[in-house]
């Protein structure tokens, strides 16, 4: 497994797993300044655990779409450079603002990821987009935000049930990937089981 600088496999509270250095956020165990990154609570954590080639090396500028209350993006801001965190729901945003008080590189943005024009004046070109919006139109969100990536990577988690609960996940994944190819070259895909059911991890680059 290739891990970015700032992410290590460490034994914390008697269990070995991914960890980053920073203040705890969601009740995760800590030791010597390191905190466990739980892949069951994080699609990006699951992508790293399953050995996907994310291309992350640490220190990148990141645009994170679907930040919720900051579980995953807090780990990202622990090892990345400037991290812009887009979330459109006010309630999780309140928690995210608290998470950001301890993290000078984390910039929460209360915006709709389907309308990037609203934050284009704030977000610089980024090295990586991490997307976990769990909503209908996941390919469209990635395509709308492609403008922020010159080169670099899209790290996307597709949740099949957010697109259509009635269809087979494999068919949903095929359709989302086909649409994604309008603007991206898909480099790798992998199931995120056993950490997340009916989710596909995707590594892509702008085409
Ligand atoms: N990525 C988070 C983590 O690992 O900590 C969990 C994200 S949760 C599965 C999906 C989040 O995406 C929700 O908080 C939801 O409000 C947000 N979301 C859905 N559609 C969105 C949109 N169009 N713009 C911004 N946020 C959106």
UniProtKB/TrEMBL annotation:
UniProt-listed Enzyme Commission number(s): 2.1.1.-
The entry's function note states: Involved in pre-rRNA and tRNA processing. Utilizes the methyl donor S-adenosyl-L-methionine to catalyze the site-specific 2'-hydroxyl methylation of ribose moieties in rRNA and tRNA. Site specificity is provided by a guide RNA that base pairs with the substrate. Methylation occurs at a characteristic distance from the sequence involved in base pairing with the guide RNA.
Matching PROSITE patterns, A to Z? FIBRILLARIN
Q: What is this protein called?
A: Fibrillarin-like rRNA/tRNA 2'-O-methyltransferase
Q: Which family does it belong to?
A: Belongs to the methyltransferase superfamily. Fibrillarin family.
Query: Does the entry feature the keyword Iron-sulfur, yes or no?
Result: no
Give me the ranges of the annotated region Disordered.
1-38
SUPFAM superfamilies reported in the protein's UniProt record? S-adenosyl-L-methionine-dependent methyltransferases (SSF53335)
Species per Swiss-Prot/TrEMBL record: Halovenus aranensis
GO molecular function terms noted in the UniProt entry: histone H2AQ104 methyltransferase activity; RNA binding; rRNA methyltransferase activity
Keyword vocabulary terms for this entry: Methyltransferase, RNA-binding, rRNA processing, Transferase, tRNA processing
Query: So which domain of life are we looking at?
Result: Archaea
- Binding locations of S-adenosyl-L-methionine: 71-72, 87-88, 112-113, 132-135
Its quaternary organisation is: Interacts with nop5. Component of box C/D small ribonucleoprotein (sRNP) particles that contain rpl7ae, FlpA and nop5, plus a guide RNA.
Q: Which Pfam families match?
A: Fibrillarin
Which residue intervals are annotated with compositional bias (Basic and acidic residues) in the record? 1-12
Q: Which InterPro entries match?
A: Fibrillarin, Fibrillarin_CS, SAM-dependent_MTases_sf
Q: Name one GO biological process term.
A: box C/D sno(s)RNA 3'-end processing
